[in-house]
Amino acid sequence: MNLDVHIIGSERPFHALSDDWDTLFKSASRATPFQSWPWLSSWWESFGAPRALRVITVRRGGELVGALPLMLDRRLGRARLEFIGTGLSDHLDGLAVDGLEEPVVEAWMRALHRLGGWTVADLHEVRSTAVVRELFERWSPAISVQQSVCLERRVAPWPEFLAPMSKNARGQMRRAVRAAGSAGVVGRPVTGVEVPAAVDGLIEGHRAQWATRDEAITGEHLTDRFHAFLRRAVVGMVERGEASLIEFRDEQGVLARVLFVVGHDYVGDYMYSATPRALEEYSINALTMHAALQVADDGKIPDVCFLRGDEPWKRRFVPEVQYNHRLLLGRARPSWAVLASYHQARSWAADRVRSEATPEWIGRAVEQLKARR
Question: What is the reported pLDDT for 346?
Fold first, then answer.
């Protein structure tokens, strides 16, 4: 197949990809919302420096049919390739037009072999269905380590969705949604010119809500650059149908806001905020999942994803457990053996911490340390 492969290493040609990227995203059914143009371009604008762009594009007859959104990080004495979006994205991957995955992956491989200046490609949060897994399976040397848990459920009408839960939990969820409806609580999508202010309210409420908890908030969520990033990303994603920002109100005003990212195969619950009154009077978890099913049904999307994290409230919905992996692709150098051994040892230690036989205080201590990094 006659494919044109380029490596984009500067800002202007990267930003010029916007329209082509949107078209590619629509034709790449394995892509998640975290590969959308508004998400990745906004992330790069806020967090890219001092890294360098290394985006591999694949075209056929001028049409963009594949893209691997990478960046080169030379910090800490090591030159590594990573996905744009690493850290704040629950799923990371490349994009390939349906049916062209094999030639696109082959093109990525050739480009990576030609590309100089890197010693390891460190690819985080890769789903089992990701296109880049095909690259991993053909690359040597390479290792895969389990990284995080993402819980998912198939979409169904509300009564059927609740059916796998315990009798007590089902009753609580049904009563919670009925009580909110009786009290005049209405959830509505925020659109158009109202989106920026609603994102501001979401972030401010999120910070205030976590300030009253014992658990540590993700440190980056407190920064101005995160605020600017999420605002830009959500405005663009809502406009394209790649996100839905739901605002719950009653006659006294806004009670809660929930941000869903909307992909080809799932609706994901990314962030929410709720007032103290809402948390006291209503079940936000019930309202959130009820709204997620409506968003999924409107878009004929098959799954609801709770995204990263294995919190008890998610388990109440009896989800399926899916694992993200961290893929490391190396160059044939002596340092690779040391790096691979280190990450395999870390993976083993993480499995021990997650084990049911491990005391809870060890798991809490590890989570606190991770939150402070």
Answer: 61
| Helix 195-211 with 224-240: angle, nearest 10 deg | 130
User: 177-220 pLDDT, tens per residue?
Assistant: 999 999 999 999 999 999 999 999 999 999 998 887 767 778 89
Q: What pLDDT, in 10s, does the model give residues 30-62? A: 999 999 999 999 999 999 999 999 999 999 999
CA atoms within 13 A on the CB side of 324: 21
Burial of 213 (0-12, 13-18, 19+ CB in 10 A): exposed
What is the rounded distance in angstroms from the CA atom of residue 141 to the CA atom of residue 334?
11
> At 239, is the secondary structure helix, strand, or coil?
helix
Pick the closest to residue 177 from 202, 158, 154, 157 (CA basis): 158
Angle at 248 (CA atoms; ends 170, 319), nearest 5 degrees: 35
Residues in the chain: 373
Residue 263 has pLDDT above 60, yes or no: yes
Burial class (CB in 10 A: 0-12, 13-18, 19+), 119: middle
- The one-letter amino acid at 75: R
The residue assigned the tokens 């280190």 is 342
Residue 186's closest CA among 285, 255, 234? 255
pLDDT band for position 372 (cuts 50, 70, 90):
very low
Q: Which residues of 221-246 are buried (b: 16+ CB within 10 A; e: fewer)?
A: eeeeebbebbbbbbbbbbebebbbbb
Per-position DSSP letters for 176-225, written without gaps between them: HHHHHHHTT-EEEE--GGGHHHHHHHHHHHHHHHHHTSSSPPPGGGGSHH
Q: What is the pTM of this model?
A: 0.90
CA 342 vs CA 47, 126, 136, 212: distances in Å: 27, 19, 19, 37
In order, the DSSP letters of 132-171 are HHHHHHH-SSEEEEEEEEEEEEE---HHHHHTTS-HHHHH
The span from the CA of 36 to the CA of 27, in Å, is 12
- pLDDT exceeds 90 at position 307: yes
d(C-alpha 314, C-alpha 307), whole Å: 10
Burial class (CB in 10 A: 0-12, 13-18, 19+), 141: middle
Interacting residues of 345 by C-beta distance below 8 A, sequence separation 6+: none
